[in-house]
Amino acid sequence: MSRRFAGCVIVALGLALATAAAADPCTVVVNGSALDDGLAICQDGEVLLSAEALERGLGLTVLQGGEGQPWTVRGFGISMLVRPNAEAFSVEDRLCRAPVAASLHDGALFVPLAMVREAFPIFARCEQAAAGERWTLLGRGVEVGDVREGLHPQKLRLVLDLTGPTAFSWRNKGGRLTLDLPAPADDGQWTRSIRLLHFDDELVSELRQGPTAEDTIRVEITHSSPLPPEVFTLPDPPRVVVDLLRDPDDIPAQPEPPEIAQMPRAAGVLHTRNFCTSRGPVRVFVMEVATDSGQVEVRPALAASTIHERATVSQMVASLGAYGGINGGFFARSGPPLGMLVIDGEWIRDPWGGRTVLGIAEDGRLLMDRLEFDGQIVFEGLGTQKLHALNRGHEEMDTLVMYTPRWGEFVAGAGHCTRLAVDASGVVTHCESEGRVVPIPQGGFVLSGNGRMARSLGKVAVGTRVTPRLGTKPQWPALRHAIGGGPRLVRDGRPHVTAGPERFRPDVYASAPSRSAVGFTRDGRLLLVAVEGQGEHSRGGMTLQEFATTLVKLGAWQAMNLDGGGSTSFVADGQLLNRPDDGVARRVSNALLVFTHPAARAETR
Length: 605
Known about the structure:
By secondary structure, the protein is mainly beta. 8% of the residues lie in helices and 43% in strands.
């Protein structure tokens, strides 16, 4: 196969000709292996794919509508509505039209390829062959990141995090579920794609992942599920979910829910509320904390000692001895928080993108505002330079970045940068401009400059005293803790959603996943709030506007959004109370935790 199609899925679907007059000779290719005849037809010069072809060949989910209702084709959070014998269809409430209509053949839905390409990231190429037209469908190349498992009484859930949405094929035969995904074009990624995992649950013995061809990543799951596995996708981040179902006769009775110890009455209250949206009922978890009671403390936490690690909120609560908490702000796939983070006066990340931040001052005052970074580095006897970022890579030329031990043990070499190592006493001990690795001194930091700033750092002599000054615009003096999120949801007791100014995508604003938020009442009580969809008829959580209105009803005077979707985790008394979107708690970068004093905690037992 040509390299210009590297990083794409190529799938082969069998072709059934309805009649010689109604169908033209053609072949549809997905992953190079033909499925059973009857999965695709060519009609009036257009290719139509069956529901089974969409599900097994492209990884989509097809749901039959009720009487008079449209069918739904869904993938990675995008929904397309089609009606048999209609050329019109809709994609996320956007009305579209295809050259030919969807149709039913012996009760099976066939959807024109033109409709599928309009809704999902699938590319197509047509070639003339001796037997007629040959269509090749191409998906976007991806990598498989984290693989997680969730244990449930009725099933075992496996979740594969992907770097993006794509078309993929899957098949289940003889106790082996095989998924073929398009691989990135960069061959250097292969060594990171090899994985062998073993599980404790009797339903699955192992998961193998690795490249099987030039352009394909294969995931094989060996299982003993007595029922066919269920495979579907979720968005934000893109995930493939595999549910291995248990024998109904072997499912044990549901245990009683664990008893949750309430916080000391003076420290706050924990309660659950039910709200209703146009999509169905949702359940809202609320932890209302009296931060001035002297019996409780709220502070951010990192998953580990450096920013490149992740853990579940429950793991963070257990390891740090907290009562509970909620997931924190957004983070990169590799772990680093994307927003501001300050813990006990230690700056870990700077504000990002002018997004909203919650701050806690040394005197306990709660703060909330959109912030910009105001950092400076003072070089004794030489002057002052603007600091552009903290513990993040150079995003532009002519910038100065500071790395602390929270970044890791060293800063990787870069030939276009000059680095200064500064020890715990604030003295430059080493200058590196040859692209070698620079260790980060314990208690100290490394300054990195590129472009004009690299030339400036090259003039700083070893032995020079260096002092960082880290601040914000507007100024927040005497800052003890801070955690970034966004967008702002409530301002002065009214809904105030700033998704546009904070550069959030429209799909984040308008979608309705599980949500997390932090806010505070007018009298200074902190609110930790999580919302999840409730019941089998619910289609999700809340939009940001719905969430803002709900927070006002809960008494929020100021509030901001936190990371949501699969990241939403609400923990109390060490127990995860909400149901994660993908059935298993996601490992996140940071959290906002609630600590009760030991004496006060003993009162609740």
